Amino acid sequence: MTRDDVLRLVRARAAAVLPDADLDRIDPDASLADLGASSLDRMDIVVASQEELGISVPAEAFAEVRNLGQLVEVLHAHCG
Amino acid sequence: MRTAGREAVASDVVISAAAVLTSVADTIPAFAAALRSGESGVRTASLPDSAAVRVAALLAPGGDDDEPVLGAERAARLRSVTRRCTQPARTAARTGWEAVRAAGLGPAELARTAVVVGGNNLALERQARVAARMECGDGRVLPSHALTHLDTDLVGAVSEVTGATAEGYTIGGASASGTLALIHGCRLLALDAADYCLVIGALSELSTAEYRALHDCHAMASGAGLAPSEVCRPLDRQRRGFVHGHGVGAVVLERRRTALRRGVRPWAAVTGYAQRLDGKRGTAPRPERQAETIRAALRSADAGPGDVDYVNAHATGSVLGDQCEAEALARVFGSARPLVNATKELTGHCLAGSGVIEAVATAIQLREGFCHPNPNLTDPADPRLAYAGPKPVDAPLRVAVSTSFAFSGINAAMVITTVAGA
């Protein structure tokens, strides 16, 4: 699975959690908070993305994540 | 001067605005029309066989579409605030918002508006689905479940959508929750703890397990062998149990003088209320305690049985429950014989929502001067009461009693009257 595959998947999860978010703005530099996500929304997106990828990433791995690109990076690093 | 055992009542509380969302209506004018026609919202429901129940009065298809009533802009705002909320939370926010708008409350008033949500154990279907998905899947759950599993998520959703920011919480009393919440709202106004109370009777979901348990304990009708609209027959000899309904009611309560100052024409006044416990755990009702509750409510309103024109009975259609309530009403009212009807024949039993939905139904009937029909009440089980019966009865109603009785021996009654000069 490429980084782009993971990005597409995370975008889809983000769109599902944030039905009113502007899809075109869900780019790698955007923070989920910028898109209107609360902390709970962000955790839902992270957990739903892992579920779809079939992976389990320890919570501390996301400590430094500040935007969508970094989130994709962490998830991709844990994909076999 | 207070006498022993008599409740100090805010006799100046009025219902200044109302909103409903039920299987038969999603606006007040539609609800008034449905009441007059005696329309049933009971339909065949696609429940699993293990539920043992085939009928329910659920929200109509498209009942989750808020746009027709709210308009595109407000529906989008509701969707944004209530994202991934439970159905009880979304519908409470929608209906509460409608009531607040109808009351014409602005930012200054909303800062003095309390949110009282009647209901407990509300999103049972969602809870069951989350648990099942966790069992069957890989053990994951969306972290937002930490918030959405709480009944109090309704309070937050209602507060954010409406802007009401005085005190707020849920009041739990199972099927009596709505009436308990109304009573609590009246007390808040009497204590001057708020100037306005947004009181919501919340939508109560049931999962397959609750349908089955309520059916197997002989409280809920299966619906087998009857047309759906004929299954729910409160107070009728052929009744077989209650039918579950999805519904939300919301009202704004305020003091009469506040409404007068704001130039609001109130729907009705709440002049008395009472709540009593059976002192006993379980599901079996106690007619003598129900009667005592109604008498206490009348005393608090300075009214006697002969003053009452109309009773909106709790009457769910359950075999034992209706028999006990008829006994209680006969004991209290004797030869006074006010008109009696049961709104649950139309809406189904909306559980936590029912007390507020029925207070709204009562206010509409008082205001419009009619008693709604019960088309299925063709063979009354208890001949001592005067039923509205299968056709609407036009009558100048002035004083009404609305009852709510719940499992665990929770009894409540309110006295609702017309407002002079309104």
Specify the structural class of chain A: mainly alpha
Per the CATH scheme, the topology name of the largest domain in chain B is Peroxisomal Thiolase, Chain A, domain 1
The amount of beta strand of chain A, in percent, is under 5%
* Number of continuous helical runs of chain A: 3
Count of DSSP-assigned helices of chain B: 16
- What best-fitting shape of chain A do the alpha-carbon axes yield? globular
**Which homologous superfamily in CATH is the superfamily of the largest domain in chain B?**
Thiolase/Chalcone synthase
Q: Indicate the low-confidence ranges of chain B by residue numbers.
A: 1-5
| CATH topology-level name of chain A | Non-ribosomal Peptide Synthetase Peptidyl Carrier Protein, Chain A
Q: DSSP strand (E) fraction of chain B?
A: 15-25%
Short description:
Chain A has helices at residues 3-17, 39-53, 68-77. With 80 residues, chain A is mostly helical.
Structure description:
The complex is a heterodimer of chains A (80) and B (422). In chain A, 50% of the residues lie in helices and 0% in strands. With 80 residues, chain A is mainly alpha-helical. Chain A has a single domain, classed as ACP-like (Non-ribosomal Peptide Synthetase Peptidyl Carrier Protein, Chain A), CATH 1.10.1200. In chain A, α1 packs across α2 and α1 crosses α3. The longest helix of chain A has 15 residues, at 3-17. Chain A is globular and about 30 Å long. Chain A starts with a helix and ends with a helix. Chain B is of the alpha/beta class and 422 residues long. Chain B has 2 domains: 13-262, Peroxisomal Thiolase, Chain A, domain 1; 269-417, 3-Layer(aba) Sandwich (Peroxisomal Thiolase, Chain A, domain 1). In chain B, the strands form 3 sheets. Chain B has an 11-stranded mixed beta sheet with strand order 5-4-6-7-1-8-15-14-9-10-12, with helices on both faces. A two-stranded antiparallel ribbon of chain B has the order 2-3. Chain B has a two-stranded antiparallel ribbon with strand order 11-13. Chain B is globular, with a radius of gyration of 20 Å. Chain A binds chain B through residues 17-20, 36, 40-41, 43-44, 47-48, 50-51, 54, and chain B through 76, 79-80, 83-84, 137-138, 140-144, 146-147.
